[in-house]
Every structure is written in C-alpha cells, then in structure tokens.
Write a structure and sequence with these properties.
Blueprint lengths: L4 H4 L3 H4 L1 H22 L15 H5 L4 H27 L9 H26 L6 H32 L4 H30 L1 H27 L11 H9 L7 E2 L8 E2 L5
Antiparallel strand pairs: 1-2
Keywords: Membrane, Transmembrane, Transmembrane helix
Protein name: CWH43-like N-terminal domain-containing protein
Membrane topology: Multi-pass membrane protein
C-alpha cells in the first residue's frame, strides 16, 4: 500500500526533538565560550585555574541563559527517551520482544529523568552561591546520563539479537557505545583533575559538554527509523504471529528506509 506524504513524514515532529536539544546545548556552550574569550578571558570569582569552567561562566551574568539552556536540554533528553519507548510499544519501531529489554528501556528513561533533573538543578544552584549543591547535582547529571546511555546500549544490543538482519539497529548501539565510552573515560579524568589540575579539568569539562551534543544527535537516527511506519505495523503480537505461521522470510521492510525492500527477521 502506498502511503500519503503526511504519513511518510509523520515522524518528523518528534524526531527533531533531540536535534533541537542538541542545537540549543551546543549553541549556548559556544556563546558562553566566545563571550569569555571576547571579553579577554576574565578570571571569575569561582575560577581556580586560568581556564574557566562552564559553571564559572554560568554563575556570572550569563546565568539566565545557562538555566534556560539546561532546562531545554534536560527536558529534550528525557522526552527523547520517552518517545523512543512509546514508539516501540506502539509498533512504530521494532519492539522489545522480551521482558529484559523492557526493563532496560524503563531504566534508561529513569536515567534520563535523573540526568535531566541534575542538569537543571546544577544550573539553578550555581557554583558561586551553592558550591556544594552544584557539585552534587553535577554528579547526579553525569551519573544519570551515563546510566541512560548504558541501559539504552544494552537494550539496543538485545533487540538486535531478535532482528539480526536490521543493520541500522547495530549501527545505532555501536555509535552510542563509542560516544558514551569516550565520554565516560573523559568524565573519570575530569573527576580526578577537578581538584588536582584545574586547567586540565576545565578542558575535559568542555570536551564532555560538547561530546554530549553528539550523543543527543544519535537519537535522531533512532527516531527517524519510524519513518512511514504505521501504528502497530511492527507490534510484538504481529511479528510473533508471523513467526508462528512460518512467515519469517521477507516480511519486514527495511526500517527507516525510503525504499519498499523487505528484510528477514529472526531470533538467534
């Protein structure tokens, strides 16, 4: 059946949510960095080394901008994970075929909520007025996002076991794994150098912050795979029924593609 143009592009509204969040996040970071450089690299009251931390700039007169940015980014990240879970549940993305995938999906949403809340709170409780609370919420943000990334990667990995011939699923979790792995290593170095080498810690904080942009962008790739897929088309019940009736061959078209080619699916 040929779908209408509206159905073909029905996914665009929610698929752009992680892109919007990433754009706001990266744009704000660039604005803060450029402002600091353009004003002659001033040393803020809270600054320890010669390189300003994001939190140092965010505690200055740019605090309103920083709070708005963190609120938009935190909410965008949480909504992206919620929408991804909803699309799998509604049969517009390949579904979770086992309870373990559903558990990991739920845990990733919880991690996104914790990370988003930590991001918002660390911007409100700035390092100048609330140094202890700021670092606590910074830790909450890092842990929340880290857990969300790990659980999402595990979920995608298990899903790809059920749909072994959908190459895009493998690409999705490998890309997330590479980015998340690099960011986790950088976060560990940041935590060590935060107290021992302030300038090094500042550099790694900026690296982690900009790297988070790329992690957000990977979800555009995921949500885009629902393109042209109607509600229930990839439901667990429908796919299980096809397996039981022996229709394992050539029943699933390439997810997220513009063509109408078909793919096999099966569990390993």
């Amino acid at each position: 059946m040929v779908r209408g143009l509206g159905q073909q592009h029905y996914y665009w509204f929610y698929a752009w949510i992680p892109v919007f969040g990433a754009f706001i996040w990266a744009g704000t970071l660039l604005s803060m960095l450029i402002t600091w450089l353009a004003t002659g690299r001033p040393k803020y009251v809270t600054q320890q080394g010669s390189i300003a931390y994001i939190s140092d700039i965010g505690a200055s007169y740019l605090k309103p901008l920083f709070i708005v940015c963190c609120c938009i980014t935190g909410v965008s990240f949480f909504l992206t994970l919620v929408i991804e879970r909803w699309l799998r549940h509604s049969g517009r993305l390949v579904p979770n075929m086992r309870r373990r995938e559903r558990v990991f999906a739920s845990l990733s949403v919880l991690g996104a909520f914790i990370g988003g809340a930590g991001l918002i709170l660390l911007s409100i409780f700035d390092t100048g007025r609330y140094p202890s609370l700021h670092r606590v919420f910074l830790l909450v943000f890092i842990i929340g996002v880290g857990l969300a990334a790990i659980f999402t990667i595990i979920e995608y990995r298990w899903i790809s076991h059920d749909f072994v011939e959908i190459r895009k699923l493998k690409i999705a979790y490998i890309a997330k794994g590479i980015i998340a792995g690099i960011l986790i290593i950088c976060a560990i170095i940041f935590a060590i150098t935060l107290y021992t080498a302030p300038n090094v810690g500042a550099v790694f904080e900026w690296v982690i912050a900009f790297g988070y942009t790329f992690f957000l962008l990977t979800f555009f790739y995921d949500l885009r795979m629902s393109r042209g897929v109607q509600k229930g088309e990839l439901s667990e019940q429908r796919l299980l029924a096809m397996r039981q009736s022996g229709e394992n061959g050539a029943v699933m078209r390439e997810v997220g593609g513009d063509t109408r080619r078909t793919r096999r699916f099966g569990a390993v």
